[in-house]
Amino acid sequence: MKQLLYIAPVIIDFEKLNGVSKKILNQYKVFSKSYNVTLLSYGPDCLYYLNNDFFETIPLNQANRRLKMYSFINEKLSVNNYNFIYSRYHLCDLLFVNTLRILGRKAIKMVVEIPTYPYKKELLKSHNGFVRYFMDSSSNFLLRFFVGRIVTYSQDDKIYGIKAINTMNGIIYENVIPVQKKQFSSKEIHLISVSMTVICHGYDRLIEGINSYYKLGGDVNIIYHLVGEGEEIKKYKDLVLKYGIEKHVLFYGFKTSDDLDVLYEKADIAINSLAIHRIGLQTESTIKSKEYAAKGLPMVSSYTVDAFSSQDNSKYVYQISADETPVNINELIEFYKKMYENADHNITEEIRLASEKRCDMSVTLNGIIEYFNTAV
């Protein structure tokens, strides 16, 4: 079986797996059906080195996590023969380029995945980000000498002069239990979002919309289950307290497994990102939208959801404007009615089946595997 080295500079906490960590482990699992895969990633305070049943933790010994990874690759892994290298992008610098150069001596093909592109606007929001962007932009032109393809969730044909493989984030559908068929209620609607919160998620737009709805005399009980932690949570909690809508917005922190499934069972509609325009994006391929679709939930989003075809987007997604206006709860209620009122079919099953054929991970990784398997 051919050898694949997967370099994933992402912290994987097995006690508290988030969406990105699950994605890395799922990619490892799917790639392992075709190749003998070695995965190198970060632990909370170490490096993780996985290959089949072999699992090793490599202590950092007070070293910088990223420098430790480069050092381990250059000193320990560069002596091995790999047919293919797959690396998740964590910005470029000369150390990264040199690591690819060293590995390139032993590998036939090398692919780099850029999870979010473009990323300039998001990086330049901080001084540290400016420094990182300068280092990246000063060296990423060198990638073309070692990298055969860039994997992107954007529509770009080339990035840094390298041909792109266009795909989307995927999940393993058999790992996700769909919710039970929903019953229509004219009095109560349950919403859910599940993610580590960052500015582009824009859940404040929904909170503002809920506040406006009740200020104008709204009488449907809207309950928003906000699951997750992250940098935006304090802002969201402050807004909820300011508006006095604590009974309509419930915070749960991080949840997983059975606890999360219980919350999903309550939900009628899922909330995708509502503000990617804040970081200069017009499209995005979120992991959470795939999980929502696999659960069988319709969505609210500020952009077209790639889990669905354009035709299915018009059926299963309430797409709001890509700006700062609050979510219109009256329109959301009408969307809910369209989904569930007088439905003589199972919307949950429809949504899951419509999305599975597009974004099960066996489908989303197919273009990468085809590239690896094509003769040089």
TrEMBL record:
Ranges where the Glycosyl transferase family domain occurs: 181-271
One MF term in the entry's GO annotations: glycosyltransferase activity
Name this protein carries in UniProt: Glycosyl transferase family 1 domain-containing protein
Organism: Flavobacterium hibernum
